[in-house]
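Re: that backbone. Tokens:
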């Protein structure tokens, strides 16, 4: 039986913040982030990542020394996205990447400050690098647009963030790192992350609407509990439609084949071929 775990960023319903109106999914009305710097994003992400890395039972990490080819291929995909010229905080965040060895979990996520995690189960179910690039672009987009920090600020107010940023509340950053483990993105943030994926991939050799190809793939797989990327409304069909519309607006290529797709090699080394 397939196992789907709630991602570190799939969120408890108590914490869901959603400013989006039914027909206004693209206009997130978020309070601007004040007093919480980009380096604070990295500190928060690093603490969350440290918790994940220390929890080998829930997050068994693939060793980069024993699986160098897998990491090389994922770094290649990540770097194509980072070198797109469209990642706003390319040089502000570390964009560290880890693979989680769980072939039954179809998921990926990225903490604030750019700590990326990809499950072997996601790699297993996808067909090529382009689909994975579409998902990674989406997850990196959440961090680049500072969605989780925005959501926490809207939930807790600016005061908590200010106290953390000024060092006056040393325990609060740890508390927030814990809170992030149960946080869920709003639907307008999902749409924004989808569109970030299109923008990032537009400047790579991957089809720029590859996040949509992922949706179609994951829905066809019959996932009962959706991964983070599908965790909120609107439904996947509308998401694909919106992704394709964004690709049309941008005028980017949706049918190209990237050179040197090494996806079979990636699957083989991770044992999910
Ligand atoms: Zn998402």
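Recovered sequence:
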């Amino acid at each position: 039986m397939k196992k789907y775990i709630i991602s570190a960023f799939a969120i408890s319903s108590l914490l869901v913040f959603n400013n989006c109106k039914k027909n206004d999914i693209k206009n997130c009305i978020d309070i601007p982030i004040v007093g919480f710097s980009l380096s604070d994003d990295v500190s928060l992400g690093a603490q969350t990542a440290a918790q994940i890395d220390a929890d080998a039972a829930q997050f068994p990490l693939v060793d980069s020394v024993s699986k160098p080819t897998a990491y090389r291929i994922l770094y290649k995909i990540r770097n194509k996205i980072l070198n797109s010229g469209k990642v706003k905080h390319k040089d502000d965040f570390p964009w560290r990447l880890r693979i989680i060895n769980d072939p039954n979990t179809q998921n990926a996520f990225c903490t604030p400050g750019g700590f990326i995690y990809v499950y072997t189960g996601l790699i297993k179910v996808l067909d090529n690098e382009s689909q994975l690039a579409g998902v990674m672009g989406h997850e990196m987009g959440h961090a680049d647009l500072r969605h989780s920090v925005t959501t926490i600020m809207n939930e807790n107010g600016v005061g908590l963030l200010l106290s953390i940023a000024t060092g006056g509340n040393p325990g609060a950053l740890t508390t927030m790192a814990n809170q992030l483990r149960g946080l869920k993105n709003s639907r307008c943030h999902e749409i924004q992350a989808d569109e970030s994926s299109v923008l990032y991939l537009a400047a790579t050799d991957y089809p720029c609407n590859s996040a949509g190809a992922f949706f179609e793939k994951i829905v066809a797989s019959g996932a009962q509990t959706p991964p983070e990327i599908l965790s909120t409304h609107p439904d996947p069909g509308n998401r694909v439609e919106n992704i394709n519309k964004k690709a049309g607006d941008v005028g980017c290529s949706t049918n190209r084949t990237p050179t040197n797709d090494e996806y079979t090699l990636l699957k083989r080394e991770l044992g999910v071929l």
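The radius of gyration is 18 Å. The chain has one domain: 34-270.
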